[in-house]
Amino acid sequence: MSSAAAHPRALHAVLGSGPAGTALARELVRRGHAVRLVDRTAGGPDIEGAERRAADVSTADGARRAIAGADVVHHCVNVGYHLQVEVMPRIQEAVLGAVADAGARLVVLDTLYPYGETGGAVMTEESPWKATSAKGRMRAELDERYLTAHREGRARVVLGRSADFVGPGVLNSSLGAAVVPGALTGGQVLGLGDIDLRHSYTYIGDVAAGLATLGEREEGDGRVWHLPTAPAVSTREIFGMIEERVARPLEIVVLAEPRPFGPFDERFMAEYAEMFYQHTEPQIVDSSAFEHAFGITPTPLGAALDATLAWYGTWLADR
């Protein structure tokens, strides 16, 4: 058993308080760990059992303050699409340097971007990294640095890759605020690209459970894992499942190419254009390696949609 699992009060520092970091902090508290949730302002809602701390982890001093005393560090920081190529390498340098100096383990929330266009082939951890987009190449370069640091003994690192998020608190996703509010209120619902292609979505609760498990289980270190992800179905099938739950037909607006819509403004869509291949070919994630290694299965898609619709119902009522 790993040291983190053997000592349930290990301190886990979660960097980034977006949907993934917030869900992860709650999951770690539920598992009995001491938890510190870090972002630039520490201004979000309280999470019972978690300490909030403000730090800018794109700087060496900020990263050191963020992880001071932590046994495990979870890197869930993301930035706006237009800033990623510039800022994410700076964050990596600061965080990787801090964990190396402190001797903490590092769990990195990762994306599918390094694989690039697959022609619809199922993505496993053995799939080649063929990204041609700027963001995909950047992510691949960062991942290789993480894995090299582990191989060379400078840091203990593990990467957990996720498909598009779905779930409570998830707004900026292709199955988020451009879809669910319209489904609940009779407004327009966005479909990107070819909605008849199979497309994987990872439930935010499974992202949290997967990252928490990697934080507890050192035997997973030194490699990439696909976080638990339900079997892929077409986006049209998902819309049909939502229609059953809201008891009304959806007014689906399909964008065959990137252009502004709802929460996705012109700047975002301009930056997202190079990633739009994700909606013009099947995006199919196989997470069976993780499931077999750690005994965790993904939440069924229907249950994930139930939780998502319930959360958005409350979110809309509070606005």
From TrEMBL:
Record InterPro entries: Epimerase_deHydtase, NAD(P)-bd_dom_sf, NAD(P)-dependent_oxidoreduct
Domain of life of the native organism: Bacteria
Domain NAD-dependent epimerase/dehydratase as annotated: residue spans: 16-219
SUPFAM superfamilies, A to Z: NAD(P)-binding Rossmann-fold domains (SSF51735)
Record-given protein name: NAD-dependent epimerase/dehydratase family protein
Source organism of this protein record: Streptomyces actuosus
Lineage start: Bacteria, Bacillati, Actinomycetota, Actinomycetes, Kitasatosporales
